[in-house]
Amino acid sequence: MTSTYGELRAQLATLTTEAFRPELADIDRLPTLEIARIMNGEDETVPAAVAAQLPAIAAAIDGTAERMSRGGRLIYAGAGTAGRLGVLDASECPPTFNTDPSEVLGLIAGGPTAMVKAVEGAEDSKELAAADLDGLELTADDTVVGISASGRTPYAIGAVEHARALGALTIGLSCNADSALAAAAEHGIEVVTGPELLTGSTRLKAGTAQKLVLNMISTITMIRLGKTYGNLMVDVRASNDKLRARSRRIVALATGASDEEIESALEATDGEVKNAILVILGDVDAPTAATLLARTSGHLRAALTASSGT
């Protein structure tokens, strides 16, 4: 046991995300405002670290969108903060892009309980990750994104290795260079954010970087899949008063139509924003709009072009 921990300590000592910063050893003695300034300065370095990985991120997104266009799913897998960020990103896709909850999924080591309470040892098991993916009946059309700040978390690596063996597209997102996770994946994304303000607290800069990259993966994939019209969320699901108001604003921005026209179109299309826009701009009825969108795999621009020939 001692030798195992000794090996792990030595491994952690090689990771930039675990590095000790002696210049911050007295940070607890500083005024609160000064600590906040230091922390804010640290956060300002994260976008540049993400920018350095944009070509790798774009390639991963194109691969993901291609698989999802064939009916595949986007599946995140991680432990601790990384796992929670994956679950968060997945949970925001249905209301934002009207995806089915089964289309974008988040797996966290230890299961749903681990979202709010650490499940000790769960991250150390590659076998657990494989079992979780088997429970989803993984296919070659799916994409699995392993997330780990250190890039050495067995659960994330196990998920990627198992998914790749089954023919799924794999992405490894870490915050250390030359990570085992990136090496295991078809697409390795290594956003090197450097040592943390608090030694080893990777929910800070590393967590921020992971959130930014996951935002890109899900959002740009959905843009590629036709879930937007320009920068408008035309597939938004109006499940509350705020979203119902936003739906009407989106239709107005896309069409310039009057409130009366907007209400009529939304009523005819059962509140589907994309369909309502097509009804107004394409000058077609609701059933025709639905047919055109089905034919164009939900791409509104293509449906609008098709509507001119109806």
Automatic annotation (TrEMBL):
Pathway: Amino-sugar metabolism; N-acetylmuramate degradation
Keyword tags: Carbohydrate metabolism, Lyase
Reactions catalysed: N-acetyl-D-muramate 6-phosphate + H2O = N-acetyl-D-glucosamine 6-phosphate + (R)-lactate
Record domain SIS: where: 64-227
Active-site positions on this chain: E92 (proton donor), E123
CDD domains: SIS_Etherase
PROSITE patterns given in the database record: GCKR, SIS
Domain of life: Bacteria
InterPro entries in the cross-refs: Etherase_MurQ (IPR005488), Glucokinase_regulatory_CS (IPR005486), MURQ/GCKR (IPR040190), SIS_dom (IPR001347), SIS_dom_sf (IPR046348)
Enzyme class: lyase
EC annotation from Swiss-Prot or TrEMBL: 4.2.1.126
GO molecular function, one term: lyase activity
Quaternary structure annotation from Swiss-Prot or TrEMBL: Homodimer.
Function summary: Specifically catalyzes the cleavage of the D-lactyl ether substituent of MurNAc 6-phosphate, producing GlcNAc 6-phosphate and D-lactate.
Family the entry assigns: Belongs to the GCKR-like family. MurNAc-6-P etherase subfamily.
Matching NCBIfam families: N-acetylmuramic acid 6-phosphate etherase (TIGR00274), PRK05441.1 (NF003915), PRK12570.1 (NF009222)
Other remarks on this protein: A lyase-type mechanism (elimination/hydration) is suggested for the cleavage of the lactyl ether bond of MurNAc 6-phosphate, with the formation of an alpha,beta-unsaturated aldehyde intermediate with (E)-stereochemistry, followed by the syn addition of water to give product.
Protein name as annotated: N-acetylmuramic acid 6-phosphate etherase
